[in-house]
Amino acid sequence: MINDNQPTWNPQPASNQSPNPNNAPAWSDVPQQQSQQEIHQTWRFGFKGNGTEYFKIWISNLFLTLITLTLYAPWAKVRRLRYFYGNTYLKNRKFDFTGIPSRILIGRLIALGAYGIFVASGYVSLELNAILTIAFLLLIPWLIRSSTRFHARNSKYENSRFHFSANMKRTYLVAIGCWLITVFSIGLLFPIALLWFKRYQLDHLYIGQLKFRLTADAGDFFAAVMLPMLMFMGAILGAGVLVAVGYFAGIAPELMMILAAGLYLLAVFFLAPLIQGYLFKATWSHVEIGNSQMKTDVSPWKFAWIQMTNSFAILFSVGLMYAWAQVRIYRYKIESLSVVFYDDPSVLMNKAQEDYNAIGEELADIFDIDISL
User: How far is CA 306 from the centre of its chain?
Assistant: First the structure.
């Protein structure tokens, strides 16, 4: 595991004097002659898929899922993830998803059986139904951890696997903390709960031996959530003003009502995507991998516009534009990301290819199933 307290190696510009190798991290194998320009590289993510290709996969997945009464859904999910991962590139190296559909099917069957028992309990005894409800709520952190570990372990970048290291104790502590701070603040401190959850997701994520770390603070997440909320309240106030003007001034009140309703619907459809865009930027602008830094130049407003127009396109096409919409937003998110290296990229890639606790992970794989939350 990387020691975050290691001194960062800052090579000097090329000169008659070679850089001091004693300044390099302990695990580094950096060549003696390495210029700062070679070290400080930026690798940008790319996506090579398109809506036409994915539409063929999506429509066949939909058809097979329907005629098999959803039993084909795990295979459809793996095909979808393999398409998106396989067309995602970083420095001409692609990602991959290696999940086994039968394992996902087992998870779905278990979830379906549990849901059937829960529904049947409501007809047998209200007390039993309440007990099962509490049991399900207590299992949610375990389900989230299990699903996250499954997805991480089955995600690859070239020959480098991802790994999620959070244990059960940490998972339940984060879940309880997020619940308490949200409930007792009447939702006002929800951005802090969201920050804690994002830290839980990223601070326990590895690619090989390289550790991810979220460096965002509470202010970043408060701004990401509260700024769109304030704008939403402003839009609602504006709609109210339009209605009042139309009523008291007698200036085509019906037209003012239509304009107010349009403004309200625009705010509703635009608010959630705008918050998502700001959260995406707040998160991926503050992620470190080893000593290197993730960056994003995403525009939250463009993000929200894409999401909103995607929703309208899906609605007015009776769902036929769904595949195109998915590719459109995925491409925008992925192509906004880049990695700025403050270490030698080749050293980082070698480090990433080392397996993280491979034996333990293979044993854990027996017990972890995907529940597709």
Answer: 17
